[in-house]
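For the sake of clarity, the format in which proteins appear in this thesis is described at this point. The fold follows as a row of integers, each naming the local backbone shape at the matching residue. One such record is shown here in full, so that the layout can be seen directly:
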Amino acid sequence: MNKRFSFLKLKENYDLSEILLNGISTFVFKITGLLLAYLVMLLITRTFGSGLFGRYSIAIAFSQLLVLIFTFGLPVAIIRLLTDVDHFDKQPKTNFLKKVMTITLISSVIVSISLFFLSEIIAIHLFKDKSLIVYFKILSYFIIPLMFHEVLLNFFRGTKEFKKYNLFMFVYLHYCF
């Protein structure tokens, strides 16, 4: 019995070929995203200096922390509900996505407004850097789209739209920020 890998076997085995193609696609998107992130870093440090890039990095990391905490685990719940055959077969049996979006909207607006008004306290008392106040005020405008981005990403994962997931996860986010 010949156990060598052949492309004919790959063509016959649809699941294996789908996994391989999705893996290659993910790899390409991830490399593209990393290159874009590197170019942004290079552009910022060469144009404005490494101090500004450090503050930019703090703001990005802080935004990721806020999104992680205040999406309340709903993005993971979306994946679970979308892949559960009893809950979701052909059409959702509940309007869970609408509920998730409503909760995300309310939560993100509260976080955004809070960050805007608490930016001075966070910058001075938590980070001990007065220059971060402006960054946090600007960041407060992006909290709402970032939280919806997180929900949308996991919706794509749950519906197995991996190309859209990879594009939004690895390319668009680095390009926008």
User: Anything to note?
Assistant: The beta strands are 88-89, 91-92. The radius of gyration is 21 Å. The first strand starts at residue 88 and ends at 89.
